[in-house]
Amino acid sequence: MAKCVVHTDQAAPPQAAYSQGWRAGDFIFVSGTGPIDPGTGKLAGSSIEEQTEQVITNMQSVLTAAGANLADVVKVAVHLSNSSLFARFNAVYSRRFSSPYPARTTVGSDLGQLPGMLIEADCVAYVPLRKTKGRSKATARKNPRGAR
């Protein structure tokens, strides 16, 4: 199974030691992304609605770089700073994703690594390699370290 790192300048850059995403065979794994505006490197918005929009846009940008889109997502994991934000988060999420919705886990988490951050999410998409020919718009590179 071929695997390659996925990177795009259209999504928030990693804030620590991780890649934006990986393509491994027919699966695309998008790392946890926060509501960081890729143009400014700063937190995008103060409301859960604004931050959810930015998180999904960041995930979508990484998916696009790998030749996928939100319709290809099969699993999402969401971390909210407070469970009382769930209904407002879910309103944005259900507008950005289409039915049938991906499998999803939503949990409350300490997101104190960035003051004001209310949400972080990651996802997994399934796209057979033969379907991605010509769909990729950004850089997908083979693993430069030769990891297996």
Describe the overall structure.
Strands 5-4-6-3-2-1-7 form a 7-stranded mixed beta sheet, covered by helices on one side. The chain has 2 helices and 7 strands, in the order βββαβαβββ. It has helices spanning 48-65, 86-96; strands at 3-7, 21-24, 27-33, 73-80, 103-108, 119-126, 139-142. Strand 4, helix 2 (86-96) and strand 5 form a beta-alpha-beta unit. It starts with a strand and ends in a 6-residue tail after the last strand. The chain is globular, with a radius of gyration of 15 Å.
Note the overall shape. Answer: globular
Number of strands: 7
Alpha carbon gyration radius: 15 Å
The CATH architecture can be given as 2-Layer Sandwich
Low-confidence stretches: 136-148
According to CATH, the fold-level topology is 60s Ribosomal Protein L30, Chain: A
Q: What topology, given as strand order, has the largest sheet?
A: 5-4-6-3-2-1-7
Tally of separate helices: 2
The first-level CATH class name? Alpha Beta
Instruction: Let me know the largest β-sheet.
Output: 7 strands, mixed
Average pLDDT taken over every residue:
90
Considering the protein shown, what is the CATH homologous superfamily?
RutC-like
SSE order, one letter for each helix or strand: EEEHEHEEE
